[in-house]
Amino acid sequence: MANTNYKGCLLFLDDFKNTSDLDLALSYSPNILLRSWYRWGEPSSQKSYQKRKKNVTKLLLRGIKLGGGTSLSIVNQLDMQSPSFNLSWLTINLEGKVIKKKNYSYATISSPGFRTYLIEKLIQQVKLGVSELHLGETAGKINFDNWTLAYFSDWIFKKYPNKSKLWWYQQFGNLGLKLISSKKISRNDIRTLKKLQKNRLFLEWGIVNNWKGINKNKEKSFLFYLYHRNLNLFIMELRHQLKLNKLSASIDVWGFADWILDLENKPDAVITTPPDGRWGFNWDKDISFDLKKNKKRIKSILKKEIEKLSPTQVVLMIDHSKPFYEFAKLPDKRQVKVLNYFSNISNELSINFVVRTYTHKKSQLGDFTKNWLRKTCEIKKNEIN
Fold this sequence. Notes:
Blueprint lengths: L9 E3 L6 H10 L3 E8 L13 H9 L3 E7 L2 E2 L1 H5 L18 E2 L2 E3 L5 H16 L2 E7 L9 H14 L5 H16 L6 H5 L3 H11 L16 H23 L5 E5 L14 E4 L18 H19 L3 E5 L4 H6 L4 H17 L3 E5 L10 H18 L1
Parallel strand pairs: 1-2, 1-11, 2-3, 3-7, 7-8, 8-9, 9-10, 10-11
Antiparallel strand pairs: 4-6, 5-6
């Protein structure tokens, strides 16, 4: 049986935390608010886990499930001030400096300790009523932390098990000698490589922060296998903790990537944006985009990805800020056409479609769109009753 958390009327709120969010959810009466309690770092006192319990309970009493989840990389100052957070988990560059962006830093899920830390936050969510856990930034912000360096040493030695000491030295200089001697490698070992040796190393390592885990020749690299390994371990450890705590929740991840395929510990679903600008489609911002003309190609792209991921379910959602924020600028009636278009494609491919109800600025979609949502929500719920 397909997981019921991905059947019926699925909506997404940016962050379910207060009475106005509750009222908005109740106005549509969906089956579940997917990934609508999402962790971008430790919540402030106003957003503390316990303070959300009252509204979560109200939602559940109305028969509406709540989804939650977390970024697998982003942490904030509150995380770093927590006694249970270890600063050694922070992602660092080759120079050994902590990587920061705006108010966020990043931690590495190559670290078993950071995985445990995040899983504890997810278990707290489930204990308060969350029934779906979304894992975002699944590649993590992997750079050159000590755990990742250790996994690289192990990975590359297994890749070239029968090479001579001379070969290792010619390929990677003194770093190669450390690798063949099973000695711990450092960031300085990489920084001080000669240009040709460093080029060879990064053909093995891959392009840092590249979602696909490939190198400049578009070949699978160490990062491909690291992303796969880390996500596989995280899902396994999360399911184990759910079982130990006698809890139940579905688990889904964001986006298509080949390294997500063939996980031993598969997610219950993969959520992704419909084919967009990456394939040359600008339905999100061009009011004259010919939906009918492009339907065959859009369906073909989706069908291939669905087949790759089978039997894991696929769920479409216009999100990942760029498509959604462009889409939100379209005229109200055009928004309805686009939503109806992807809803129909989803039905034809036997997958589901999540609709985001408003922007981060609390700007809701137009009246025609809201009416379409209410009507479609009712139809989708009746289909599973």
